[in-house]
Known about the structure:
Distance between the termini: 30 Å
Shape: globular
Strand content: 5-15%
Amino acid sequence: xxxxxxxxxxxxxDYDFSKxxxxxxxxxxxxxxxxxxxxxSDHPRYFGLFNPxxxxxxxxxxxxxxxxxxxxxxxxxxPAAAAIERQLLQLFGTRIGWGAHEVxxxxxxxxxxxxxxxxxxxxxRRYPGWADGGLATVSVKPAIxxxxxAHLAWIKIARAAGLGSDAVxxxxxxxxxxxxxxxxxxxxxxxxxxxxxxxxATAGTTAHGAIDDLSGMAVVAREHGAHFxxxxxxxxxxxxxxxxxxxxxxxxxxxxxxxDPHKWLCVPMGAGMYLARxxxxxxxxxxxxxxxxxxxxxxxxxAYIHSMQWSRRFMGLKLFxxxxxxxxxxxxxxxxxxxxLGRYLRESLLAHGWRVLNDSSLPxxxxxxxxxxxxxxxxxxxxxxxxxxxxxxxxxxVDLRGRLALRACITSYETTRDDVDALLGLxxxxxxxxxxxxxxx
Length: 441
């Protein structure tokens, strides 16, 4: 980030809103301000989290949505917009492996809202009195079973639903990364005081790209009558390529799935999807009736009686525009290219003498210098700081099996082999500097 906190505060003092300013000048200033005081996640050498640059067609879609500003609470107010989102949801549902006619769900602000929806749908399915009487009607202790490596939005979700953090049962993965059905089954069996209302598999962990045993966990969910949800917020985008869909074998067994197009499919934030095969659970969880809204239509599956949001932005248009512009083949080519770059990154790291610590087919590598345990964490911090401070690339660190590792992820459609090679050069130089510092001390 080029700008300091002090310079940012000084710039913002120019905006006391005491007088009107020309739109053109405002636009130019805000572009410069945001660009100079931010990590440039839109750069091809941003190897950090899941914030890829937005495709031009997706940006245009977002602009059109903001300009027309349709209201999607009910289909009758914006039938074209509602139909577009329905078509997209059915497309992804069929890529999962469901029939188009059975796909339920809605666009969401992101993965947290989609996952929250999964919990509320699960509660509605398992406890018939919950929707009206709340948890006071539930005589057992509901539990959410999820890998210890999962996104901890589940903690917030459990608190928001009134279950509390203790309801989130974090199951240690047998290899420290991916959760398998046998480990889950044994954990649930020991957890006798809890009622498994929701079992969650993660398809593409944030930290290291692990994909849980989707088929094995589905069996456990069926055995306990639990709602089986798959959080594929990141990796779900890979379904648009046959090679990516093959990595998610078993996803078709889910009762519901989360996918965030803004994580891999290069559309502006926020854009999430909750995909399910059960409208009834959504209706039980969210349906209300008021005198000031148009009559709700179950036939048209009006969004406000099937989801948390009421007033709804047209979030699907940016994805629709990107898909229409690229085509499925174009998206598939993009995903195949990034999967290939991920393999190239891993192979090159090994060739350069780094230890690759995760085993993922997704384009995410966790790695560390080949040093002893005691020296590892300090060296990793120095290497990460050196690379980031260079201003030439950005990557993150992650705790992996109790040790700190460097983490590089590829989600930008602009990233090339040259960018990966540039990162490798920066890493090698930073490792040498860190080694020299370590020896000197």
